[in-house]
Amino acid sequence: MSARMVLLGPPGAGKGTQAARISERLGVPAISTGDIFRANVAGETELGKQAKQYMDRGEYVPDSVTNAMVKDRIAQEDASEGFLLDGYPRTEAQVHELDAMLSESGLALDVVLEITADNEAVVERLLKRASEQNRADDTEPVIRRRLEVYAEQTAPLAALYEAEGLLVRIDGIGEVDEVTDRIMTALEAAGVTA
Ligand code: B4P
Q1: In 3-state terms, the chain is what percent helix, strand and coil (to 5)?
Q2: What atom of ligand 1 comes closest to residue 125's alpha carbon?
Q3: 24 burial class (0-12, 13-18, 19+ CB within 10 angstroms)?
Q4: 97 alpha carbon – ligand 1 mean position (Å)
Q5: Contact, 59 vs 148, CB < 8 A?
Q6: Of 8, 57, 134, 142, which has fewest CB within 10 angstroms of its CB?
Q7: Is the Cα torsion angle 7, 12, 17, 20 positive or negative in sign?
Q8: What angle do CA 98, 183, 165 make, to 5 degrees?
């Protein structure tokens, strides 16, 4: 069966961590807009130069840049039977854009997973990652700004997807394996299996 999925959740909720595991178990690519931007920043591409100025401040990269990048990526062969979008959509405009991209090909999302975690837990995780990976946007003031931007622009998207009957909420607090088990159980209940 197809599995076209979106992963929502605040910075540090475990999206990237869980996306890699879900992708492996279901055999669909995990597509992280954050990873694509970081690869472009590292490669000093034009896209990377544009994205960096926003990312370093904890702000979202403009929709015009992000939407075109995702449209291109989900049209690739490996995503033809499904994908897991990690960190996209993040704004209401991106939600509508994604719907339009899919419906052009007669497709639709199957499920939207929201990983929840409280602010203090995610700040602690991201500060730990900062000491390990040195990401420019993992300093405490930028993490706080990312959480504000998430609360303002992305958290409301869960209600949109809930109204469509697509939303599944997962508690992101606990061991990584425990959270994966919760996700796989919820996906099975939603009819999404390998
Ligand atoms: P992202 O790369 O999506 O960054 P993120 O929200 O911090 O999540 P990430 O996936 O990295 O971390 P995770 O929670 O897995 O975005 C970065 C920036 O890119 C954005 O701020 C924005 O500027 C730009 N961007 C991306 N998408 C965009 C879009 N659609 N529109 C506009 N701009 C966009 O993990 C965090 C840490 O927690 C890790 O160290 C992990 O090891 C740890 N962890 C995970 N699970 C844990 C658990 N259960 N217990 C303890 N620790 C755990």
Answers
A1: 55, 15, 30
A2: 38
A3: exposed
A4: 22
A5: no
A6: 134
A7: positive
A8: 45
